[in-house]
Design a protein that fits this description.
The structure is a single chain. This protein is of the alpha+beta class. It has 4 helices and 5 strands. The strands form 2 sheets. The protein has a 3-stranded antiparallel sheet. Helix 1 runs parallel beside helix 4.
């Protein structure tokens, strides 16, 4: 996870979809709801403009490249303009399955059904 930090304070700007699912389930098992919120915000940011879950994603542009070690201050100062999350191999079944598994377990842990209600699309999309 890009929010995990090395001992020298840097982290890698790349995430894998199944790793997000595993981390989400671990946070659920530890009842670490701040971490769950952080992970969900990362998913939201990494999927802007995308409708299919990624195999992996990374920051691209404005000095960021795939698999770069960066610092929080660099992210704060560079996250503007042309910087965006880029993803590869979207719709990968393995990644999606781990994420759905984690979300189902999380939903059940807070009293919801494992499967969310189907959203009716009124725009014929």
């Amino acid at each position: 996870m890009p929010t995990d930090v090395y001992s020298d304070g840097v982290f890698v700007d790349e995430v894998i979809g199944k790793g997000i699912g595993w981390e989400l389930d671990y946070a659920r098992s530890e009842e670490n709801y701040d971490r769950i919120y952080e992970i969900l915000q990362l998913i939201k940011a990494a999927n802007i403009g995308k409708s299919i879950y990624m195999e992996f994603a990374w920051l691209e542009g404005n000095g960021f490249t795939r698999n770069s070690k960066i610092t929080k201050s660099a992210v704060d100062s560079k996250m503007q303009g042309t910087t965006q999350w880029t993803s590869r191999d979207v719709g990968n079944g393995e990644q999606n399955t781990w994420f759905c598994w984690a979300m189902a377990r999380l939903r059940k842990s807070v009293g919801l059904s494992a499967e969310p209600e189907k959203i009716q699309n009124t725009n014929n999309e």
